[in-house]
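New here. Your pick:
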Amino acid sequence: MASMMKAVGIKGGKGSADNLFIDEIAIPKPGAGQALVKIKAFGLNRMDLLQREGKYPVPPQAPSTMGVEFSGVIEELGINTSNGFRAGDSVFGLAYGGAYAEYIVVSTYMLIHKPSELTWEEAAGIPETWITASQALYMVGEYTSGKSVLWHAGASSVSIAGVQLAKIDNASAVYVTAGSEEKIDFCVRELGATAGFNYKDQDWASEILKATNGRGVDIIVDFVGAAHFQGNLDVAAQDAHIVQLGQMSGSILSEKVDISGLLRKRLRFEGSTLRSRDEGYQRKLRDLLVEHALPKFNDQTFKIFIEKVFPFENIAEAHRLLESNQTKGKIICTIN
């Protein structure tokens, strides 16, 4: 086996998509409890854009190479390692980093056997997206059957997963917001959302209150941040949970924000991340995905929506597409 591999590097350590290039670095070695996986495909996530620009706090255990989700074949296991895996197994999984490469070392506790029904591209688009959606809905949002849910950025990969999870678990209603009629139509027609609202030309908070007869929504999952903060407080139902996963519109609130709803409605507002969590926490989410969602991927009840697939070498083009905010689903890169 060769000692070197191709991996995506960033000229100067950070910068624009134009700074991405195919570098050559050493193939990592698996330690106890780890596997070396030869990567077939990997998924892009918005955190990758921030990391590329030097704006994302990378966990200390992560390699400098970007990428947290992948599919591939186990090449080698670390000493005294099994956990139900062996060399030659087809897998997909979640890592702290390093997936933009020909090989990755990852804990076997974060690997999942790839069903034959899934393509390499589909499998690579599951881990970060569906685990994040599961975390927001079940562990943080404390969803139970019959509650209503609002997913902001409805055509994002996490919300696409979240809408499907909420629907299969008998949500009373699933609402979305998005920035174009095309995305709203996709969420309602393709995903089965109850209704969608265009935040660019609608007062989405007022419309949701109308749709719920003034009651509001039980769980709100938001990636937008400051621009949606007041609206989230307004549409939250009594005892609602607001889960903050991002701040795409910024983190500084205007002076006119009225936080009285937090007290009056007994709201719980909680921010959450996934990549900074320890392996034990991530493993619980991985197990939840295997038990709750994996069978529904096998019979295609759950669908993985892929916007476009790029060859590994076209990583800069893939990043530019993700930056455009025009996608509905995952962007995947493949390695031959």
Summary: Residues 85 and 108 are 7 Å apart (CA to CA). The chain has two domains: 4-126+277-334, 132-271.
